[in-house]
């Protein structure tokens, strides 16, 4: 398996429906508190905390969606680049020291650890609700990316236990 050209991979994107709902609830609570404030002149501090909680939920969901939409893994003959809008990591194949694969609820979680930096990505998994596929998360080419990392970096299998697999340099 020789890497001749730059390959770019992006994760599957989840629906933004949950983000919309979070912001709609936040606006509804905010408007309701505004009406209550105008009518009674006072609002319990717990109500403000409730509004703040929904604001934080909406902010976290929006940030997660923004990061997913900016995540890219690029594989070239000299190394791999991971970028997600918040961090940018470039590793030469010789810099990769370890790869850990962890089984999690939704797919496999792959940790690529270099001398001075690291990054993680998730292989493809389907989110099921009552037997129906409600979404897909992770990289649809996740196992292909993993295979290329292991091949190009020359890592060897060190340990394999129940939910974990570890590769490293010998």
Description:
This protein has helices spanning 17-40, 45-69, 142-153; strands spanning 7-9, 72-76, 79-83, 88-92, 96-103, 108-114, 118-122, 125-129, 132-137, 156-161, 164-168. The chain contains three helices and eleven strands, in the order E-H-H-E-E-E-E-E-E-E-E-H-E-E. A five-stranded antiparallel β-sheet has the order 7-6-5-11-10, with helices on one face. 36% of the residues lie in helices and 35% in strands. The longest helix is centred in the middle third of the chain and has 25 residues, at 45-69. The chain is α+β, with helices and mostly antiparallel strands. A hairpin with a 3-residue loop joins strand 6 (108-114) and strand 7. The protein is elongated.
Structure described in brief:
This protein is 36% helix and 35% strand. With 170 residues, the chain is an alpha+beta fold. Strand 6 (108-114) and strand 7 form a beta hairpin.
Q: Low-confidence spans: pLDDT under 50, at least 5 residues?
A: none
Q: Which shape, going by the Cα principal axes?
A: elongated
Order of helices and strands: EHHEEEEEEEEHEE
Binned strand content? 35-45%
**What percent of residues adopt helix (DSSP H or I)?**
25-40%
First-residue to last-residue Cα separation = 21 Å
Structural class: alpha+beta
Mean pLDDT: 91
* Number of H- or I-type helical stretches: 3
Q: How large is the radius of gyration?
A: 21 Å
Number of strands: 11
Describe the main β-sheet briefly: 5 strands, antiparallel
Strand order of the largest sheet: 7-6-5-11-10
Task: Give the arrangement of secondary structure elements.
Blueprint: E1 7-9, H1 17-40, H2 45-69, E2 72-76, E3 79-83, E4 88-92, E5 96-103, E6 108-114, E7 118-122, E8 125-129, E9 132-137, H3 142-153, E10 156-161, E11 164-168
Helix pairs in contact: 1-2
């Amino acid at each position: 398996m020789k890497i001749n050209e730059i390959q770019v991979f992006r994760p599957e994107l989840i629906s933004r429906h949950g983000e919309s709902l979070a912001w709609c609830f936040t606006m509804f609570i905010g408007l309701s508190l505004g009406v209550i404030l105008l009518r009674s002149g006072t609002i319990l501090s717990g109500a403000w905390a409730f509004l703040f909680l929904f604001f934080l939920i909406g902010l976290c969901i929006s940030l997660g969606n923004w990061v997913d939409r900016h995540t890219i893994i690029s594989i070239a003959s000299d190394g791999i680049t991971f970028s997600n809008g918040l961090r940018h990591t470039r590793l030469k194949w010789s810099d990769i020291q370890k790869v850990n694969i962890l089984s999690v609820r939704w797919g496999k979680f792959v940790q690529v650890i270099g001398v001075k930096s690291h990054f993680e990505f998730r292989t493809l998994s389907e989110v099921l609700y009552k037997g129906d596929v409600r979404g897909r998360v992770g990289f649809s080419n996740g196992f292909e990316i993993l295979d290329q990392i292991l091949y190009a970096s020359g890592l060897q299998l060190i340990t394999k236990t129940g939910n974990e697999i570890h590769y490293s340099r010998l």
